[in-house]
Please model this.
Amino acid sequence: MKKQLILVMLVSSFILTGCQFDLFNQTDQAPQKDFTTRQSLKMENFKLNKMFISEEKIIVGLGDSLTQGVGDERKLGGYLGRLATEMETFQGVGQIDLWNEAKRGRRSDQLLKQIKSGEIDDAIKNADIIIVTIGGNDIMRIVKQDLFKLRVDAFQNELLVFAKRYGKIMKEIRKINPDTPVILLGLYNPFSIFTDQANEFDQILANWNNTINKVAYSDINACFVPVHDLFNSNSTMVYHTDFFHPNSKGYEQMADRVLESLKSCGINQLTKGEMDF
Model:
C-alpha cells in the first residue's frame, strides 16, 4: 500500500513539474522576423542643425594702417587679429581665415582703385564679413599740405569728394559680393592727445564720421562702428609711440568695440544664423 502511495506521488510530481515547465515557457513574444527583412534608416532627408556644425569663416580686412595693425607692439594683428581670435569662439565657427588686404598710407581713392583692379576679387567674393577702415589718410593729406594754415573749408571740400568715393567703394564691393556683412569703422582725432579741449578738428572728424555712417545706413547689410571716443586722449595709454596709431591696448579696445557693434548690428541675422555668440 505504501509502495502504491509513493508511486502515485512520484507520478503526480512529474506531471506537475511538466505543467510548470510548459507554463513558464509559454510567452506572448511576437514571432521573430528574419533580420534581412528589416529596413535600414533612410538618411538622405536628415539634416543636422547648423548650430551643431563648425565651419571655417573668412574675414577680409580692407583699407589703411589701422586694419593692417600698424603700432601693435605685441604683433597680434591689430584689432583685426584680435577680432578673429575672439570670433573663433562663436557658435557655428570652427576657424577664422583672415585675409588682410589693408596697407599703411592708403587713401580712399587708392582703395577704390585696388577694388576696381580685380586683384582682391577672390577675397571679397569669399568673405563672410568685410571690415573697412579708410579716410584717415585723406584727412592727413590736407593737414600735410598746410599744417599751420588749416582751413575748415578745405576739409569740407574734400569731404564731398570722399563721400562720393566711399559710395563707389561700397558699390564695387556689392558688385562682387551682394550680401555679405560690411563693417565700416569710423575715424578718430589723433591731435586730441595734445589738448583736452574741443577744437575745430573735432567737428571736422564728426562730419567725416557722419558721412561714413550714412554710407553704412544706405546698405541693408552694412554697419557703422564709431571709435573716436576710444582715442579722445592718451590718459589710458592707447597710442603708439608715434602718437598717431593705436598701440596694443588701443587695438584691444577697438576689437572690443567691433564685437559690441556686431551684437547691436545683429550679426546673427546678417549671416543668416550661421554665426552666433
